Amino acid sequence: MDSQTYQLGFIGAGKLAGSVIRGLVLAGFCSPSKIIASEPNEHVRNALVNDTAVAVTADNSEAAATAEVLFIGVKPGMVLPVLRDLRDKVRNKVVISLAAGIRFQSMERAAQTRLMRALTNTPSAICRAATALARGPHATDEDVSLARKIFEAVGLVVEVDEEHIDAVTALAGSGPAFVYTVIEALAKGAEKCGLPAPVAGPLAAQTVLGAAQLAIETRMSPEELRKMVVTPGGTTAAGLAEMDKHRTAEGLIAAVVAATKRGQEMAKENG
Asked: From the centroid of its chain, how far is CA 57?
């Protein structure tokens, strides 16, 4: 690997960081030759190269030293050790953490750099991410603008204070798993009524996609959209009554609350 300068660097290229990389390449944000990813797992590195043609390495120092903007995409428990190891390489650089539960205060003790946090999700791979950005103490307006431009290439971006990051992690980061559970349940309900699985699965997924897209494009509230579907005494009303009976909405609310609390606990554990 030569010593060229890369526009974007990633420490870790697993599920989340790998999704962001794939989305940026898909969106044409920059040439794949301007992205370098450090990843210890050879299988993950090879898959990323096959999918995107970005540069890869097993050496974190190489990615940190040659990238202009560095993303920390390792598991939360590894963020602080990685930053300590790369302290000299990232000094005064823009560093964007993708990890839940690791606060600016802890990261600033590990390395002196212009930190930001970006809580995003795996739909970034198809440019349908939901991302929240939080500005660190030393990040500039230009840093925030650049981070926003990067993540807008792969989806929706909002800016929040760090105190709201745990709720974002639960809603946007963990949320896809909750939605997949809903899709799976819808399909299983249809299968229980005789619909073949190869038909039920795609119909359930497309139904969720279409409903979400309609909510985004019309900007109508879920209540307003729901009223457009419900006919008194009809099939939808019967189904919604069962959802109320089984407290489906309460379960989803509880899932977001539980995920938020876990993010807060992780912050204390890694403080």
From this structure: 23
Q: Please, which residues have CB within 8 angstroms of residue 169's CB and are 6 or more apart in sequence?
A: 100, 101, 119, 259, 260, 263
Of 173, 161, 166, 101, give the one whose Cα is nearest residue 133. 161
* Average pLDDT score over residue span 83-88: 95
CA distances (Å), origin 37, targets 128, 153, 200: 21, 18, 38
**What is the residue extent of each domain of the chain?**
6-162, 175-266
Q: Is 84's pLDDT higher than 90? A: yes
Query: H helices of 53-196, where?
Result: 60-66, 76-85, 87-90, 104-110, 141-152, 165-168, 175-192
Q: What is the CATH number of domain 6-162?
A: 3.40.50.720
The fold for domain 175-266 equals ProC C-terminal domain-like fold (1.10.3730)
**Residue 1: pLDDT band with limits 50, 70, 90:** very low
CA 267/CA 159 separation, integer angstroms: 20
- Confidence class of residue 6 from pLDDT cuts 50, 70 and 90? confident
Report field, pTM of the whole predicted structure over 0.85? yes
User: Which tokens hold the place of 2?
Assistant: 């030569």
Question: Distance between alpha carbon 61 and the CA centroid of its chain, in Å?
Answer: 24
Instruction: Give the pLDDT of residue 268.
Output: 84
